[in-house]
Every structure is written in C-alpha cells, then in structure tokens.
Write a structure and sequence with these properties.
This protein is mostly beta strands.
Length: 722
C-alpha cells in the first residue's frame, strides 16, 4: 500500500459510498466505525507539508517498505515502477543511471536523467543545464520518494515532465546501529552499515555501503561505494539547521546496446547476454566520483512566517570510454574517452507566510534560486580503451578532439500559494521566472584543430505560470483541474556539437515549450480503498530530438508533439491482512508535425515518440502474518511494445512483455535486537524481454536486454540502545 497510516472515522463521514452507487440501505448495514486509508503528507507539491488528497496535483509517495523491503536498493527503477505516469527502466548497465521518464518526458535521454528534476531533501541533483544524477543517493538511507507529474512541476524550473524528491531517514530518539548483507545472482554482493540516533540537540544518521556485481550481461561488471551523513541541529525552538553529505565512488563496464541483427554480432533477441565486439574492443567503461554537501537553515520568524535558506556545493569526476564504428572514424581510433571534472554549487532562499485573506486561510511562498556548474571537458581518442597520448597533437593522428570549459548558471524567482476561497474549494497558483545560461570557453584552438575558436554562449528565459483548483465534494471525494506552461532547455550534451563532424557547439538549438492540462479525481471508496484517477494532455513545440551520427551525437528541434493519457492507481486493505495495489498508465505520445531527423526519411506527423510505452501496468498482492513476523508479495508488471527511433522503422520495436516477481521475509524482535531475513525472485518465469531502449542509436544497437530469472537474499540486524 502507498500509505500505512490508518485512522477511524464515523460512518457519517463516508459520503463517497453514494458516489459509488450504494443505496442508503447498504450504508445502514455497515458497522458504526470504518477504517480509512489516510493519504500521505507531501512537501514537494507546495513546499510546505500538506495532505496529498487535498492537492490539485498528481503526486504519489513511495514508502520506505517499498524502497527497501526485498529490494537491492541500488536504482530508482526498483521503486518507481509502482508509480503511474512514470517509466523507470533498469538498463542492467551499471555505467548508466536508470532510464526515467514522466509522461514521456526524458524517454530519449542517453546519459543520466533529463526532462525530470531530481532532489534529495530539497537539494537539487539536477544541474543548471537540466541533467540529473540520481545515483548520488544511497536508497538504503531514504525513507520515502515523492513523485509529482504535470503542470505544477514547472514551479521547480526548467523541466517538463515532473519532479522526483527523495527524503532521507529521520533519526530516532534512541541510538541504533545496524548492518545488512545481500547476495544475489551474477555474483552480486551488497553490504550496508548504519548508525543513527539523537544526542542532546543533534539528530544524526550515518550510512555506508558497498556494492559489487559481475552483471547479467558480458562486460557488465561494476562496483560502487557510497556514504551518507545527515545531521539535524535543533538550535532553538525556532531555528533548525540540517546538513547532508553524499559521497560515492564507482567504476563499471559498459555492455552498451545490441542490435536486432547485425552481421557478426550477437542479437539482442537470441543472445541477450552478449556484447558487440566494438564494445569489448573499446573496453567501454566509466569511472565516477561524487562529493556533495548541502545545508538547510529553517527559522520561524513568527507563528505565520518562516525563512528557509538552502545551499549546496560539490565536485564530480567522470571518465567515460565510448566505442566507435570500427575503421575510418576519428583517425582510426576505436573509442573515445570523455572526461569531465565538475564543480557546482547553488542556493535557494524562501519565505513562507500563512494567514487569512478576506477571512479565508491562505499560504504563500516566495523564493530565489541560483545555481552554477563549471565543467572542464576533454574528449580524447582512444585505442582498445587506452587514451592516445596528447603529445602527438601535431601528428596527423592527433588525440585531442575537445578541450573546453562548459559553464552553466540558472537564476530563478518563484511564487506559489494556496487560498481556500470556500470551505470546499481551494485555489492554487504560482509562477516561476527562469533564466538559464550556457557558456563554452574553447581551449582547443591550436595545433591541428580545424574548428577554430568555438567559444560562445546562449541564454534562455521563460516565465511559467500554473493554476489549479480543487473541489472537496465531500470528505471522501475531491475533484481537481490545473493548467500550466512548461519550459525545457537543452543540456550541454545536446548543444555540444553543431554538425556530425563535431564542429563546435550548437547555440541555435531552441528550448522546448509546452502547454499542460490535467483533470483528476481522488476518492476513498468504502472503508478500505483509495483511488486516484488523472487524465492529462500536453502540447509541445520545439521538442529536442537527436540526429545522431558517428562519432558525434547532434540534436535538433522537432516541430510539434502531443502527449495525452490516463493515470490510475488503487490501494486497498482487505480482510485477513491482504493488501492490493495497482497502477495503470495509458500514454499516447506522438509527433504532430513532420521534420527531418536522424535519417534522410522525414519523420511523419503521427509517428510515435520513441521510448514511450502506450500501456504500463503494475500490480501487487501482499499478505502479512503478524504473529509470525512474516510478509510476502506477488508482483506483476506489463509494458506494451515501444518504438526505438523517430521514423518508427518497421520491424524495429521492443516487443511487449509481462513479468512476475515474488518476495518474502521474516522479522523478529529479541530484547534490544531486531532481525529480518528476506528473499526475492525477479522475473519468476524467466521471460526474455528488452528492459530499455537506446533511442535513435546510430549503429542500430537499440536494445538493452533485461535479466532472466534472478534472485536476491538478505539479512539485516539492528541493535537499539536503551
């Protein structure tokens, strides 16, 4: 279930029974008290804690038990598959973040997450240029994930699809220490250690973990070490300071994609564990390190006024080796090494005020946001995974292709508020003024460089208003509607090259803009079920699409696109400790004007946007035996077929699939100790399927096969001090 909180309310409050078509006689037959599943509290939608049931926003919460119980806790795709409107695909590739999209935005991202903004405890993991790295956060230290879709996402800046916010664990009053060990298929290992508690006025959380795997596919091994530290200092009743530190080191092989049928290569559909020879020849792989610290100071000026000051800073090192077409490209090199050394920092200052306007309650937030990212980028030819020496710059086989500084900044102002115009009607509105600047300082202007000095900059500005209204029909039924404009700027990956020859940045690339519409219903049905239904439509212009070509990926603007669909979720607590949960998404995402894309064949109006699934369904039946400390769940997941390129090439789709998973575990409490043991079987019936696709891949290696039947077992021990 998406919420574990239960409260009792009198029969008189259950007016939704009438909505469900039940007669008065049926109501009279019910017992005098009913249990209702309480909708979770959220902060992402309005920046102040509110009940999600009363918001005109499509927002869901993934709870701790769904993040950690029977899960490896390594990627967001494990948890987000249960959220309607979200596509979260595990690439089975440790060198890449999961493929996450919201209502189809972000589906074509090759690296990281774009089109969806990612946060942890209010601190952005999305850089000013729009590229996000959710892998920074260790999910074993996360208590919940809030996922917001639709128009109100625009109040977080340049993103069209949605907002994902991870909230880290809170410290208990009594000190605790714990350890977890996991073992799984393909020699997968994970160890976690944590310590948490409260000492005088300081709440603390320390979490460290180690992960290693050989990977499902050949050339897919990886390892990752992470650490999280959180300190909350209660300076006074009115003032609290929270500090959050995230650290990780990672190295991983990159198995890349497979083709349906390329001569001399394994096929994604007959040899899913295989890897293309060009990938192993290039020794495709990645090395990453990330250090980040953030602070949030909250001070109550008065009962009705609060100031929040958030700041963060960090560094990131990334070295990625990518394979090229064999022979004749990049002076006969078979790979490229792309190195990034990044410094970044930012701040957000917000004033929250609440009171009465014309004797009706309101709350309002005003804020300023600034962020800066400075990348030292270098692109070097490599042979067999080894960089060519830069000392041969004056030789015809020069090694260096790119040496530049990429500087991105954003400066935004926003306002957001709610006014209860009637007892049964709330009005929500807001606006954000966004300014994003991308600047390139070219250092590769000597030797054999044919580009000359490609330094330059571009600036994007947009105001994105949103408005929403919720009608509280009765205590168990809310209806809402909202509208907003969206704005999505190009990332540095997308402006990197203006031509397939790699001749300088493409500062002519335009930002994508959109109009977003949403209608929704939130209801408690009977005494045990909560239902959310949302219909939406988004019309976009200048969507950013790839016209990839070896050895460089180039992007352009498509004409118009349209996304419309339905999101449905139902959460029911049944008798005898059974629970049911289901989430369904229907998405019709298509181009509504033609354009020239990644091939000479024009992309026709009416083509499906690649990487978007028409239908997705997730269902779960769970059961608990409290007296035994036992719990188990049977999960099912269905995804329809998906197109892999803009022209919707006949025969090039990843087929629909249905898979099932099973998890079970025990928990025991012995004096100050608590123990848990659990097991998980993924892809129970060993289904062959494509886990994710690489949109518009030049070499036709569109497909990333998912793992067959695999297992995970874990043991946790926790000690609570008196």
């Amino acid at each position: 279930m998406s919420s574990s909180k239960i409260f009792k309310r009198k029969l008189l409050s259950i007016a939704v029974l009438g909505v469900c078509g039940l007669t008065q006689n049926a109501v009279a037959a019910e017992p005098a008290e009913q249990k209702i599943i309480l909708a979770p509290l959220v902060i992402t939608a309005t920046r102040v804690e509110q009940n999600s049931f009363d918001l005109p926003v499509a927002i869901d919460v993934v709870e701790k038990k769904d993040i950690q119980d029977g899960q490896l806790q390594m990627t967001l795709s494990e948890s987000l598959i249960r959220v309607p409107g979200i596509t979260a695909q595990n690439r089975n590739n440790q060198s890449q973040d999961p493929q996450i999209s919201s209502r189809g935005f972000g589906s074509r991202s090759s690296f990281g997450v774009r089109g969806v903004r990612v946060y942890v405890d209010g601190i952005p993991l999305t850089m000013p240029d729009g590229q996000g790295q959710p892998g920074v956060v260790d999910l074993s230290a996360v208590k919940s994930i809030e996922v917001m879709r639709g128009p109100f996402s625009a109040l977080y800046g340049s993103s069209s699809g949605g907002v994902i916010q991870m909230l880290s664990e809170d410290a208990p009053k009594t000190a605790e220490v714990g350890a977890t060990v996991m073992l799984g298929s393909d020699n997968t290992k994970r160890e976690i250690m944590n310590a948490t508690g409260t000492s005088e006025n300081i709440e603390y959380l320390l979490n460290v973990s180690n992960f290693e795997t050989d990977g499902y596919r050949e050339h897919g091994a990886g390892k990752k070490q992470q650490a999280t530290a959180k300190f909350k200092i209660n300076i006074s009743e009115a003032t609290k300071l929270t500090a959050l530190v995230n650290w990780f080191d990672q190295e991983a092989q990159d198995p890349s994609g497979l083709a349906r049928a390329n001569p001399g290569e394994p096929s994604a559909f007959t040899n899913p564990r295989g890897v293309a020879k060009v990938t192993t020849d290039a020794n495709a792989r990645v090395y990453r390190s990330h250090r980040q610290v953030g602070f949030n100071l909250e001070h109550a000026l008065s009962e009705n006024n609060t100031i929040n000051v958030m700041s963060y800073a960090g560094t990131r090192e990334n070295s990625q080796y990518l394979s090229l077409k064999p022979g004749g490209t990049n002076n006969n090199a078979n790979s490229r090494a792309s190195d990034i050394s990044r410094d970044f920092w930012g701040t957000d200052v917000r004033w929250d005020n609440k009171g009465d306007l014309f004797s009706r309650p309101y709350n309002i937030s005003l804020g300023l946001t600034y962020g800066k990212m400075n990348d030292a980028r270098m692109d070097i030819n490599a042979d067999n995974g080894i960089k060519r020496s830069i000392t041969v710059l004056n030789n015809t086989n020069y090694a260096l292709n790119r040496d530049e500084a990429n500087i991105s900044t954003n400066f935004d102002q926003y306002i957001q508020g709610k006014w209860s115009v009637l007892d049964s009607v709330d009005l929500h509105a807001g606006a954000r003024r966004t300014k994003v600047k991308l600047e390139v300082k070219d250092k590769f202007i000597t030797g054999t460089s044919a580009n000359g000095d490609t330094s330059g900059s571009v600036e994007y500005q947009k105001t994105t208003p949103v408005v929403g209204i919720v009608w509280k029909v009765n205590p168990a039924l809310n209806l809402y509607a909202n509208y907003g404009k969206g704005f999505e700027t190009p990332t540095f990956i997308e402006v990197a090259y203006s031509s397939l020859a790699g001749l300088g940045p493409n500062f002519n690339l335009k930002p994508s803009t959109s109009n977003n519409y949403e209608l929704g219903l939130k209801a408690f049905v009977l005494d045990n079920t909560r239902v959310n239904v949302t219909v939406f439509k988004t019309n976009s212009e200048n969507e950013i699409v790839a016209i990839s070509g070896a050895p460089y990926a180039v992007y352009t603007n498509a004409g118009k696109t349209e996304r419309q669909g339905l999101e449905l979720s139902a959460d029911a607590a049944l008798a005898h400790n059974f629970n049911l949960y289901a989430a369904y998404t229907y998405l019709d995402a298509k181009f509504t004007s033609s354009f020239i894309g990644s091939s000479p064949t024009p992309v026709a109006s009416g083509n499906h946007i690649p990487g978007t699934y028409r239908s997705q369904l997730y269902g779960e039946v769970s059961w608990k035996a409290p007296s035994l400390g036992f719990s188990t769940a049977f999960e099912g997941r269905y995804n329809s077929k998906v197109y892999v390129d803009d022209i919707n090439t006949a025969g090039e789709t990843a087929p629909a699939y249905t898979i099932f998973n099973l998890r079970a575990g025990f928990k025991q409490n012995v004096e100050n100790w608590s123990f848990s043991e659990y097991a998980r079987i993924e892809n129970l019936f060993d289904k062959d399927y494509i886990g994710s696709v690489r949109v518009n891949d030049t070499n036709k290696r569109f497909y990333e096969p998912a793992a067959g039947r695999n297992y995970l077992i874990g043991l946790n021990a926790n000690y609570r001090f008196n």
